[in-house]
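Encode chain A's predicted structure.
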Amino acid sequence: MRELLLDEVRRSVKTAFPDVGQDLLDRLSLDLPRDPSHGDFASNAAFLLKDVVKDNPRKIAEALVEKITGGISDAEVAGPGFINFRIRPEGIHDFLRKLADPAARAEMMADPDLAAAVGKFQIEFVSANPTGPMNVVSARAAAFGDANVSLMRAVGCDVTAEFYSNDEGNQARLFGESLKARFLQAAGRDVDFPEDGYQGDYVTEYGMQLFRACAAWVAAGKDLADLPGAGGTIAEVLAAAGVDETGPVPDRNDAAVIAAVDTAAAQLPFAELGLGSMIAGAKESLAGFGVEFDVWFRESALHAPGPDGKSRVDEAEALLRERGHVREEDGAVWFTSTEYGDDKDRVIRRSGGVPTYLLADIAYHLDKARRGFDHVVDVWGPDHHGYIKRLHSATVALGLAEDWLEVTLVQQVNLLRDGEPVKMSKRGGEFVTLDELVEEVGKDVSRFFFLMRRASTHLDFDLALAKQESMENPVYYVNYAHARSRSIFRQPMAAEVLGSGGSAAGTGSAAGTAVDMKALGVAADLSRLTTDEEVTMMRTLLQ
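Encoded structure for chain A:
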């Protein structure tokens, strides 16, 4: 309704003052009056026009009111030049009927001008390191990012949801070493676990599954080099070996098993198998949380050589060099980010030739630009605040617009159980997984809790409160109100609300008649809603 009325204001401006430019028309807006008695919406258009029209705001406002002919509202000039709008009852009723009709509602929400202005849009969110199961720390970013993707699509924007997996670098290597150690320990070998390795039970379980799969493969008289799925996930290895996730432990003293373990320890790509399994698990967990991504992008793809032998990381460095934004010192390559306001220049390739995470991120965002995105949003955790300036500097140095990259920080989640904080550490294997949260609390309740506070504020997620069936639980409060509202339509008298033009799809039960809600929205006599509470509720829906 706000947009419909704003379009009417713009039309009145163009009619009354044809010389007003588009830039000023785009700046027009409608606000909610502080005092509801002043109407439903208010405009300060006259004050924005006074320097162009060269007249006092009140006279400008009077001229605009004369040209407003939309028929959905009454407009009046107030004070020194404000325009107050009160939507007429028939306008409110028509709007509510459209809300009740899914097709009409979708058409009403679509904003072709906004979609055209936004262009091809990308939101990258969650993007957790694939070294452990998806946990509640990432769940808030998942709910936030997915909600924004849904909102943009609802108004007709072309938006891509993307997940970036850091499957390259030291953490990926350490995860692979941790998995290899657990594999050897499952086989009965006395090996040291890597310092700062990943301690979670899931790593131990993966190690045992690989041990059982390798033993079964060799027992079948097959060569481990031919084991399908070795470049994919542990689930694929298990399937190829014909074993499930649980079962008897192979004889660790069997000579063939001992030989198989030695061969597997030397041949299996543990990091790739483990990371691939984690990414597959993340897809499944997020889908269970109601979050689907259009693109799953792996960092390793940036380091893979192309047809010319150069990787996308190499290409990003070359472009920075070409544009004069790198220097070399002590054998390392530095991005001169101080040219763009950063507090110091940043190393992008170490003296040994190894690229830093920053160079990979620069390459990733160059790839986004080459895919044609007009605007990208990165959703990060609060610990990345200091990283924003250096990456934004890099995108500008690559020749992208100042506002091409937008970074939104989602603050930390403190999970509480019985009023006490739940300590979590991915490295230490102590955390509550997203699957556990959904099982304990539910998908919808979890998403509601994550979204009921601004992303920029810390959130205490009280598990006990989320499950509590009392008015202290905001989700229960909403569900209770919805259930009470729906119960009205199960009463026999509800059909009368439809009026003579309506229809009710009856269940025929003694409990009452189930009303066809779409028919109710289209045919109900809304003029009967006259109490202060009913009118206030209808006007709130307008806003």
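Residues 136-154 form the longest helix (19 residues).
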